[in-house]
Amino acid sequence: MVEQATVSMEAAMFLRSYKDWLDGWLSRVLRAKPTPMTTEVDGRLKYQGRSEVPPAEYEEEYRDLKALLMREHKSVVTGFYDAVENRGHDEARAELGLRRALEPALEGRASGGVERGWREFSKEEMRRFLSAGLRRERILLNRKPALARARSNAAFLVEFLAGSSNRLPPSVFIDPDRKRGRAPR
Question: CA–CA separation, 133 vs 135, rounded Å?
Fold first, then answer.
Protein backbone atom coordinates (compact mmCIF):
# COMPACT_ATOMS: atom_id res chain seq x y z
CA MET A 1 0.00 0.00 0.00
CA VAL A 2 1.08 3.59 -0.46
CA GLU A 3 3.17 5.52 2.06
CA GLN A 4 0.81 7.53 4.25
CA ALA A 5 3.34 9.55 6.27
CA THR A 6 2.70 13.29 6.42
CA VAL A 7 -0.68 13.36 4.74
CA SER A 8 -3.46 15.67 5.70
CA MET A 9 -6.61 14.39 7.35
CA GLU A 10 -8.45 15.02 4.07
CA ALA A 11 -5.88 13.10 1.99
CA ALA A 12 -5.95 10.27 4.53
CA MET A 13 -9.72 10.06 3.99
CA PHE A 14 -9.20 9.56 0.25
CA LEU A 15 -6.42 7.04 0.88
CA ARG A 16 -8.67 5.05 3.25
CA SER A 17 -11.33 4.95 0.54
CA TYR A 18 -8.73 3.81 -1.98
CA LYS A 19 -7.41 1.10 0.35
CA ASP A 20 -10.95 -0.14 1.07
CA TRP A 21 -11.67 -0.21 -2.68
CA LEU A 22 -8.40 -2.01 -3.46
CA ASP A 23 -8.87 -4.55 -0.66
CA GLY A 24 -12.45 -5.14 -1.78
CA TRP A 25 -11.40 -5.87 -5.35
CA LEU A 26 -8.52 -8.07 -4.31
CA SER A 27 -10.84 -10.10 -2.08
CA ARG A 28 -13.50 -10.40 -4.81
CA VAL A 29 -11.32 -11.12 -7.83
CA LEU A 30 -10.76 -14.81 -8.22
CA ARG A 31 -12.47 -15.82 -5.01
CA ALA A 32 -15.07 -18.58 -5.02
CA LYS A 33 -17.29 -18.21 -8.05
CA PRO A 34 -20.89 -19.39 -7.86
CA THR A 35 -21.75 -22.09 -10.38
CA PRO A 36 -25.42 -22.53 -11.27
CA MET A 37 -26.73 -26.03 -10.84
CA THR A 38 -29.37 -26.90 -13.38
CA THR A 39 -31.46 -29.81 -14.45
CA GLU A 40 -32.94 -30.40 -17.86
CA VAL A 41 -36.73 -30.36 -18.10
CA ASP A 42 -38.32 -30.75 -21.54
CA GLY A 43 -35.12 -29.69 -23.29
CA ARG A 44 -34.68 -26.58 -21.16
CA LEU A 45 -32.35 -25.97 -18.27
CA LYS A 46 -34.06 -25.35 -14.97
CA TYR A 47 -32.25 -23.58 -12.18
CA GLN A 48 -31.79 -25.75 -9.08
CA GLY A 49 -29.51 -23.72 -6.83
CA ARG A 50 -25.90 -22.71 -6.64
CA SER A 51 -22.63 -24.38 -5.81
CA GLU A 52 -19.19 -22.88 -5.49
CA VAL A 53 -15.84 -23.48 -7.13
CA PRO A 54 -13.56 -23.73 -4.10
CA PRO A 55 -11.37 -20.61 -3.74
CA ALA A 56 -8.19 -22.68 -3.52
CA GLU A 57 -8.93 -24.25 -6.91
CA TYR A 58 -9.65 -20.84 -8.43
CA GLU A 59 -6.40 -19.45 -7.03
CA GLU A 60 -4.55 -22.50 -8.35
CA GLU A 61 -6.02 -21.86 -11.81
CA TYR A 62 -4.82 -18.25 -11.61
CA ARG A 63 -1.31 -19.35 -10.60
CA ASP A 64 -1.23 -21.88 -13.47
CA LEU A 65 -2.37 -19.23 -15.94
CA LYS A 66 0.14 -16.69 -14.65
CA ALA A 67 2.95 -19.28 -14.92
CA LEU A 68 1.94 -19.96 -18.54
CA LEU A 69 1.93 -16.24 -19.29
CA MET A 70 5.38 -15.81 -17.76
CA ARG A 71 6.65 -18.57 -20.07
CA GLU A 72 4.87 -17.61 -23.28
CA HIS A 73 4.07 -13.90 -22.93
CA LYS A 74 6.56 -12.69 -20.34
CA SER A 75 7.30 -9.42 -22.14
CA VAL A 76 3.62 -8.45 -22.10
CA VAL A 77 3.25 -9.14 -18.36
CA THR A 78 6.55 -7.55 -17.34
CA GLY A 79 5.85 -4.62 -19.65
CA PHE A 80 2.62 -4.00 -17.76
CA TYR A 81 4.30 -4.27 -14.34
CA ASP A 82 7.10 -1.95 -15.51
CA ALA A 83 4.64 0.61 -16.87
CA VAL A 84 2.65 0.57 -13.62
CA GLU A 85 5.82 0.93 -11.55
CA ASN A 86 7.17 3.71 -13.79
CA ARG A 87 3.98 5.69 -13.19
CA GLY A 88 4.57 5.32 -9.44
CA HIS A 89 1.67 3.01 -8.62
CA ASP A 90 1.92 0.49 -5.81
CA GLU A 91 2.51 -3.23 -6.29
CA ALA A 92 -0.95 -4.19 -5.00
CA ARG A 93 -2.58 -2.11 -7.74
CA ALA A 94 -0.42 -3.77 -10.39
CA GLU A 95 -1.43 -7.23 -9.14
CA LEU A 96 -5.08 -6.19 -9.16
CA GLY A 97 -4.71 -4.98 -12.75
CA LEU A 98 -3.32 -8.32 -13.88
CA ARG A 99 -5.99 -10.27 -11.99
CA ARG A 100 -8.82 -8.16 -13.42
CA ALA A 101 -7.39 -8.56 -16.91
CA LEU A 102 -7.27 -12.36 -16.53
CA GLU A 103 -10.47 -12.98 -14.57
CA PRO A 104 -12.78 -13.58 -17.57
CA ALA A 105 -10.45 -16.31 -18.86
CA LEU A 106 -10.91 -18.16 -15.56
CA GLU A 107 -14.70 -18.29 -15.81
CA GLY A 108 -14.88 -21.40 -18.01
CA ARG A 109 -15.25 -23.87 -15.18
CA ALA A 110 -17.67 -21.69 -13.21
CA SER A 111 -19.87 -21.44 -16.32
CA GLY A 112 -20.08 -25.21 -16.53
CA GLY A 113 -17.75 -25.16 -19.52
CA VAL A 114 -20.06 -23.02 -21.65
CA GLU A 115 -17.77 -19.99 -21.56
CA ARG A 116 -14.32 -20.54 -22.97
CA GLY A 117 -11.56 -20.92 -20.45
CA TRP A 118 -7.92 -19.97 -20.85
CA ARG A 119 -6.86 -23.55 -21.54
CA GLU A 120 -8.87 -23.40 -24.78
CA PHE A 121 -7.12 -20.29 -26.14
CA SER A 122 -4.53 -20.58 -28.85
CA LYS A 123 -1.22 -18.87 -28.10
CA GLU A 124 -2.22 -15.95 -30.32
CA GLU A 125 -5.67 -15.66 -28.70
CA MET A 126 -4.05 -15.62 -25.27
CA ARG A 127 -1.66 -12.86 -26.32
CA ARG A 128 -4.52 -10.77 -27.73
CA PHE A 129 -6.72 -11.42 -24.68
CA LEU A 130 -3.93 -10.50 -22.26
CA SER A 131 -2.93 -7.40 -24.23
CA ALA A 132 -6.52 -6.15 -24.41
CA GLY A 133 -7.12 -6.60 -20.69
CA LEU A 134 -3.86 -4.94 -19.72
CA ARG A 135 -4.50 -2.10 -22.18
CA ARG A 136 -7.76 -1.42 -20.31
CA GLU A 137 -5.93 -1.41 -16.97
CA ARG A 138 -3.27 0.98 -18.32
CA ILE A 139 -6.03 3.40 -19.30
CA LEU A 140 -7.41 3.24 -15.76
CA LEU A 141 -3.93 3.82 -14.35
CA ASN A 142 -3.28 6.83 -16.56
CA ARG A 143 -3.44 8.99 -13.45
CA LYS A 144 -1.29 10.18 -10.60
CA PRO A 145 -0.24 7.51 -8.07
CA ALA A 146 -2.60 6.99 -5.14
CA LEU A 147 -0.88 9.26 -2.63
CA ALA A 148 -0.47 12.16 -5.08
CA ARG A 149 -4.05 11.76 -6.28
CA ALA A 150 -5.39 11.64 -2.71
CA ARG A 151 -3.46 14.81 -1.89
CA SER A 152 -4.78 16.51 -5.02
CA ASN A 153 -8.35 15.47 -4.21
CA ALA A 154 -7.88 16.72 -0.64
CA ALA A 155 -6.59 20.10 -1.84
CA PHE A 156 -9.63 20.45 -4.13
CA LEU A 157 -11.92 19.54 -1.26
CA VAL A 158 -10.30 21.96 1.20
CA GLU A 159 -10.57 24.82 -1.33
CA PHE A 160 -14.18 23.94 -2.02
CA LEU A 161 -15.11 23.76 1.68
CA ALA A 162 -13.28 27.03 2.38
CA GLY A 163 -15.35 28.72 -0.30
CA SER A 164 -12.34 29.67 -2.42
CA SER A 165 -13.47 27.37 -5.22
CA ASN A 166 -16.88 26.50 -6.59
CA ARG A 167 -15.59 23.32 -8.23
CA LEU A 168 -15.53 19.91 -6.59
CA PRO A 169 -12.66 17.44 -7.15
CA PRO A 170 -13.26 16.06 -10.67
CA SER A 171 -11.90 12.65 -9.77
CA VAL A 172 -14.38 12.23 -6.93
CA PHE A 173 -17.43 14.18 -8.02
CA ILE A 174 -19.03 14.61 -11.42
CA ASP A 175 -17.94 17.90 -12.95
CA PRO A 176 -19.67 18.40 -16.32
CA ASP A 177 -17.43 21.39 -17.16
CA ARG A 178 -14.20 19.38 -16.92
CA LYS A 179 -12.47 19.10 -20.25
CA ARG A 180 -11.43 15.64 -21.29
CA GLY A 181 -7.78 15.01 -21.76
CA ARG A 182 -4.77 13.15 -20.60
CA ALA A 183 -4.39 12.59 -16.88
CA PRO A 184 -1.75 14.77 -15.24
CA ARG A 185 1.62 13.20 -14.55
Answer: 5
